[in-house]
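User: Round two. Same drill as before: sequence, then structure, for each protein.

Assistant: Same drill it is. First protein:
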Amino acid sequence: MSDPEIDPRIALVVAVLAVSTSAILVRASDAPASVAALHRVVITTLIVAPLAVVHDPGAFGRLAPRDVVAAAATGVALAVHFATWFESLAWTSVAASVTLVQSQPLFVALGAWALLDERVTRGTTAGILLAVAGIVVMSLGELLGGGGVGANPLYGNALALVGGVMAAAYVLAGRSLRQRFPLLPYVTVVYAVAAVCLLVFVVGSGHPVFAYPPREWLLFFLMAVGPGLFGHTVLNWALGHVESSLVSVSLLGEPVGSALLALLVLAEIPGPWTLVGGVVILAGIGVTARSQKQVS
């Protein structure tokens, strides 16, 4: 693959800043979490699909069927990621939710070991154990009434953790597929499949699909353009040029950015167990990502 015209490190900074706004926009919305996720993905798809056709009209016809199937499966993982993570924000703090959903480097490391037969170093093992300890501290502290923020922090944390597992599947698939799958066709397939899955979930849940005021549609649009287009799409571009471990460790900036925005915009102060557990989790993720980079 040829060298990119844009420095991937600059692109990662833009992407992390963009995704850091996601939790705040979701919290600002009064729509059901699954509806917000649906319209975010639909609007993003409507933006990238025409660009894919205009940029290379024959790109879709050149895709191998197995790659299209793999990209579709990635779309399912993305849909579950959004559905569980968006819902978690209704039950736990922004800081806890975003930190747990960004535990995905741990699951990337485990997935690479289990599925790609990559060696697990002592550093990777230590990082995983450290991050798991942080998750236990955060969740056990809130279970025992340690000042967690949210209606049901333990439930919200569990949803965010599932979202982290699905994000790891998304990154692992992207690392492989983006080496041979052009960016715009890839994200079009992934986003379109995710949108269909979320639509089925929204309809099955009995939520209205379109009956929302202009304020909500503005928030859906901001979610699509900011975290969707400049966040996820730029991250997918970066996966074609840099190691997944670098992308994963770059996302460590999201919990910090989201927590600061939650403090400034929502006046949400994380509880003590969230702060302590979050620091331990971030340390564990950092050790894991550093170890992955050293053996890649």
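Second protein:
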Amino acid sequence: MKVLIIEDELSLQETMKLSLEREGFVVETAGNYSQGLLKIEDYNYDCILLDIMLPGGNGLMLLEELKRMGKKESVIIVSAKDSIDDKVAGLNLGADDYLAKPFHLAELNARVKSVIRRNKAGGSLEITLGNMVVYPDLQTVKINNKELVLNRKEFSLLYYFITNPNRLINKIALAESVWGDHIDQADNFDFIYSQVKNLRKKLTLAGASVEIKAVYGFGYKLVTE
């Protein structure tokens, strides 16, 4: 799961980033309006944490741009301005939640997981496909009610597939969703092939009724038997 933090207070930005990474998220950051705009234009995220007061512009303007582009990211406004007007304005523009500074990191993590769950799984604590059940909050997968042991990247790959079932996914989109925008620095996609190969093998050995099919020259698709 991939999160973007748009926050100009660098110490807070780093603290939030480290906390979310410990929870298993891929986290990217932007420190001002223009950086945030570039990120939302070029990449897709599961959740965006958005400060209102930013150098070079207003966070609510970024939220308007996000909605104008037709993107579906969950958005949590994170701001020291704990006023009713700001909260109402953000929610009216399509934000999913509002978190006032200062806040506890445990609450931040819980809010992020909650809005992603509501967006991706219709509010459910689990996502079911065939005989496989994925628990995003716990980063746990069960097949025929037996836990499937995956490493963090394998789980992130599977989560991306199960939230995009039967959709043909190219290698670049898959890499960006799991490794972040640093994928631009990669020379090839050998690491993707390796991780997907291991994931496919584990699903097969566990008797999963879903399969990750390779589409030659393009990418992969998660299908049910």
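The radius of gyration is 18 Å.

User: Perfect.
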